[in-house]
Design brief:
By secondary structure, the protein is mainly α. The chain has helices at residues 3-15, 21-28, 32-44, 68-108; strands at 48-52, 62-66.
Length: 119
């Protein structure tokens, strides 16, 4: 499981412990099977524990709780994911600057752009 998926699951479970696997899958944009697989992986690592709703009329309801190791992992994965996204942003910013420079050079060289050629 990548950091982005782990980050999103830990964040969602922390914010809404009674989230269903179907709701979790919808939030992640994945199948229920993948959401289940990821939850089980996080449970096996000791980051999440699960409890049944005993007083609920829906006996299949569960509560997902972050363990102390889960809170630590959530903090670590948040920083790793943030670092990754910041690098992705910087790379994209650099690419945009390069493309903008190329476009300006074409304009300065009087190279007609497709939109200027009249369809």
């Amino acid at each position: 499981m990548d950091d982005e998926t782990a980050y999103k699951i830990l964040k969602l479970v922390h914010a809404e412990p009674n989230i269903s696997q179907r709701e979790l899958a919808e939030e992640l944009g994945v199948s229920v099977g993948k959401a289940n697989y990821c939850l089980k992986a996080l449970m096996e690592k000791g980051f999440i524990k699960v409890r049944n709703f005993y007083k609920s009329s829906n006996k299949r309801g569960y509560v997902y709780l972050l363990t102390s190791r889960g809170f630590t992992e959530k903090a670590q994965v948040t920083f790793r994911f943030l670092k990754y996204k910041m690098q992705e942003y910087e790379d994209l910013e650099s690419e945009i600057a390069q493309i903008r420079s190329e476009a300006e050079q074409m304009t300065n060289d009087n190279i007609p752009l497709a939109e200027d050629q009249g369809s």
